[in-house]
Amino acid sequence: MLEIGWFSAKLFFKGKLIRDPVYFVKQTTIGIAIGFLLLVLLAQAPIPFYLPIILSSLVTGMIMPFLLKDFKMK
Predict the structure, then answer these.
(1) Is the pTM of this model over 0.70?
(2) Which pLDDT score is estimated for 34?
(3) What is the pLDDT of residues 15-38, one digit of tens each?
(4) How far apart are CA 53 and CA 43, in angstroms?
(5) Does residue 62 come out as left (phi exceeding 0), alpha (psi in the -120 to 50 range) or beta?
(6) Phi, psi of 49 (to 5 degrees)
(7) What pLDDT is recorded for position 66?
(8) What is the pLDDT of residues 26-69, one digit of tens each?
(9) Is 50 exposed, middle or buried (0-12, 13-18, 19+ CB in 10 A)?
(10) Cα-to-chain-centroid distance, residue 3
(11) φ and ψ at 14, to 5 degrees?
């Protein structure tokens, strides 16, 4: 298991793991921006701060598979 992770990390840093890195960065940035915006908006509400963190993390985790559904690896 560790060998697979190590091999994938080496390919990633050599630039040979992701087929279209621009698409990956774009989609990941969209997901991060949505999560950050949700966190900032919910943090303004008069609720304990752990709730906006939990909710924004949950929403970001739920939208990432949809954003990266067309993601291709080499």
Answers:
(1) yes
(2) 94
(3) 777 777 788 888 889 999 999 999
(4) 8
(5) alpha
(6) -65, -20
(7) 85
(8) 888 999 999 999 999 999 989 999 999 999 999 999 998 888 77
(9) exposed
(10) 24
(11) -85, -10
CA distance 71 to 8: 16
15: left (phi over 0), alpha (psi -120 to 50) or beta: left
What tokens does 17 get?
Answer: 């793991």
For the record, the structure tokens of 4 come out as 């697979």
47 phi/psi in degrees, rounded to 5: -125, 160
Which residues have a Cβ under 8 Å from the Cβ of 73 and sit 6 or more positions away? 17, 18, 19
Residue in 4, 60, 55 with CA at minimum distance from that of residue 32 = 60
Q: Which residues pair with 18 in a beta bridge?
A: 73
